[in-house]
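Researcher: Here's the sequence for the chain we discussed earlier.
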Amino acid sequence: MTTANIVFLIDPQNGFANPDLTPEQGGSLYVPSGENVGEPSARLIRNLENSYIVYSQDFHPAGHISFASSHQNVKPYQKIYLLNSGFDFRATAVVADDGAIWPVDVDEKGCITKVDYNVQLTEKDVRGCVEQTLWLDHCIQGTYSSLFVDSIMHELPTGLAKELRSTDSLAHTVLSDSDIRGNTHYVVRKGMEMDLDSYGISTENDGILKTDANSVFKDIADDLQNNGVKEVNIFVGGLATNFCVEFSHKDICEEFVPMLAAKSIKANVYLLTDISAGIPLEAPDGKWPDLTSASARMAAYGTETCTTDDVIRGTLKGRAAADLNPKARLEG
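Model: Thanks. This is the structure I predict for it:
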């Protein structure tokens, strides 16, 4: 085998794809059209052979610092600043609707208990802090919200699906299994630290601390080298395009692709547009988290776009990586 496919499915979970989950089910942070990613993702999984499928799983403990419900006197989607004190992250300020920054008091968990409106801070006062958006509760460990959507769960190896549903594996940061078609499945869990969020599959939101994705990257890279693979097609898609997909894509391009290059393995990276849905945000300058420019920011890494049907057709026909690009097909 000289070529291989690697698919990264980023957070295709009930908490992002279903707007109606109760708190007992783990809550919802619904991504518009998120419910549409499951079926094409499942169809892709069914048609893959001798490939690697890596799923990231948002996996928050209850009371996570990124939840608005964990703080007093704040609202969902408001922003706060987290002070890093020896990798102990505690809220230090809250941003009002008009952009004003106010200091806060916190409890022993680092969550806001009081906002001090008597002293206004400046950007200089919060320089070096981690900016955090406060979200609705979602993807809480051990709940239905944290599981992958049903259509994907049905395609997983039986042992992996069972482990995902088990409360005995809540502390496990990486899960893995293989299926009868020779595919290796990995689940990388993120957002497990109580006081720090994770958008990227590998890099925590402070930009320094890491999940255990690197061990998966290394396992795949070593396996590819041992099997004589010289070129890989990397496909990335999921929820949400301008948050966890984009941050995970950055991790893949800046950490995994160089790891492959060091083993003389060429990597072609593609964004799966039909299974990537985003949060409709706009920024005047087009910078993150502007949704309309997210694909352009990823394209700056040399990433092309395609769909799951393109991958399936290319896989079934054994076509070269360049032929998976719709533009290349039209020009051909």
